[in-house]
Amino acid sequence: MDHFETIDGVLHAENVPLPAIAEAVGTPVYVYSRATLERHAQVFSAALDGLGKGGTPLIAFAVKSNPNIAVLKVLQRQGFGADVVSGGELRRALFAGIEPGKIVFSGVGKTRAELELGLTEKIGQFNIESLEEGRELAEVAYAMGLQGQAALRINPDVDAGTHDKISTGKADNKFGVPLVRAVDAFAELAGLPGLNLRGVALHIGSQLLDLDPLETAFSKVGALIGDLRDAGHTITHVDLGGGLGVPYQAHENPPSPADYGAMVARVTDRWDVQLTFEPGRVIAGNAGVLLTRVVRVKHGVRDPFVIVDAAMNDLARPALYGAYHGFDAVEPSGERTTANIVGPICETGDTFAMGRECDTLVAGELAVFRTAGAYGATMASSYNSRGFVAEVLVDGDQFAIVADRIDAGAIMDAERVPEWLE
Ligand code: LLP
Predict the structure, then answer these.
(1) How many domains does the chain have?
(2) CB-side neighbour CA atoms (13 Å) of 295
(3) Is 358 designated active site?
(4) What is the pTM of this model?
(5) Alpha carbons 379 and 167: distance in angstroms, whole number
(6) How far does residue 316's CA lie from ligand 1's centre (Å)?
(7) Which residue range forms the structural domain that includes residue 126?
(8) Which among 65, 153, 214 is the best mutation to test ligand 1's pocket, defined by most ligand atoms within 8 Å of the CB?
(9) What are the pocket residues of ligand 1 if the criterion is a CB atom closer than 6 Å to any ligand atom?
(10) Does 23 reside within a domain?
(11) Does a cis peptide bond (omega within 30 degrees of 0) precede residue 28?
(12) Hey, is 198 helix, strand or coil?
């Protein structure tokens, strides 16, 4: 459920009519709803309440899905931690007031500087993705007189059944240590003085619409915990990653957080470990829309082209993954049509939808791309020198700009022509 609803013929974010935001901030603009973020956070937390040792799992929001510091602040106030994958994300999480102990650091390419930053900030857990990384973390920590809290990320070789580009748990994906090598890798790393290797982690993919692959992967983790304990290791922490899908289209019916929680309860029943989860999309996806204005409608050979002022540089998912985003008029006339929805960028990839049945729109009217709160603004580029769009957070009947629009001029200001070229 989200808080983007049509009231008296006008689409609102909570109590704010979207035309008021377009008027004040311009378009395109990402609009997030605080009430929706909070609702999703609460539903997800409630679904997992009582699970694992201590009964209060750590819910570490996947910052990559929406790193805006105001969004992180909303979730910090819900008691969330953060799953970060770079020094930049780590700094954002800390800036938003997330306790270092609630931060987990994933990613295959953590640099030495990033390992040092995580150690200095005393983050809760490094999810080590390889033997090589574990050795380096141990060495760096030892040299600093510290001990890194760590879990070994395993690759369970499970097909998440999602888009190839966002699957992470198959044997030939770059993530984690193959399950068959996990016991040996664990034994080597657990013996290093700079590490407190205390558990395992996994994340098999994103936008999962079926619980079966997750259950298969979690069961493999359960067996591994047994093997590791048999080998004499102490396992106190398991991070089950993120991945729960959201409905981008009406016919999609992803498992609910409650279904997910029930499955986790069943599989982890006897694990006796503190659990961590890393949800991103399920929290932020439907908490945001991309508000855009129709530049003009151009006749096509078959369907008309509705050319909007948002483009693939602002919302990359359709161009990158062929992803579907709902497209609705802000003030629908009731008339429907079939149209191609495109942005102004000079390549055919800048197409949001072909032959889409949608509200009829004319030049100057406003529309939204739905479910744009996750992997939206964060994946933007400035291609075609279009700059970066603004982001707004709505709270009841108030709203604030939580990220300024960065225009193409500001980006150009960071460039220079060398003297020898003048
Ligand atoms: N944990 C780890 C280690 C991850 O790599 C990810 C996402 C998550 C958690 C959060 O997954 P979620 O709950 O959001 O599914 N750009 C793509 C999605 C890439 C996801 C990458 N990893 C998209 O727009 O669909």
Answers:
(1) 2
(2) 14
(3) no
(4) 0.97
(5) 17
(6) 15
(7) 34-282
(8) 65
(9) 62, 64-65, 83, 106, 166, 168, 203, 206-207, 241-244, 278-282, 317, 321, 374-375
(10) yes
(11) yes
(12) strand
User: Backbone phi, then psi, for 76, in 5-degree steps?
Assistant: -60, -40
> In the 8-state DSSP scheme, what is residue 254?
P
Last residue of a domain, one of 248, 282, 316: 282
In a domain? residue 422: no
Same-domain check for residues 91 and 192: yes
Among 250, 301, 346, 417, the active-site one is 346
Element (H, E) at 218: helix 212-230
Nearest CA to ligand 1 atom 19: 166
Q: Provide the residue-wise pLDDT of the chain in tens; the chain has 422 residues.
A: 799 999 999 999 999 999 999 999 999 999 999 999 999 999 999 999 999 999 999 999 999 999 999 999 999 999 999 999 999 999 999 999 999 999 999 999 999 999 999 999 999 999 999 999 999 999 999 999 999 999 999 999 998 888 887 777 777 888 899 999 999 999 999 999 999 999 999 999 999 999 999 999 999 999 999 999 999 999 999 999 999 999 999 899 999 999 999 999 999 999 999 999 999 999 999 999 999 999 999 998 999 999 999 999 999 999 999 999 999 999 999 999 999 999 999 999 999 999 999 999 999 999 999 999 999 999 999 999 999 999 999 999 999 999 999 999 999 999 999 999 99
* 263 within domain boundaries: yes
CA 156 to centroid of ligand 1, rounded, Å: 17
Report yes or no: 353 and 324 within 8 Å, Cβ to Cβ.
yes
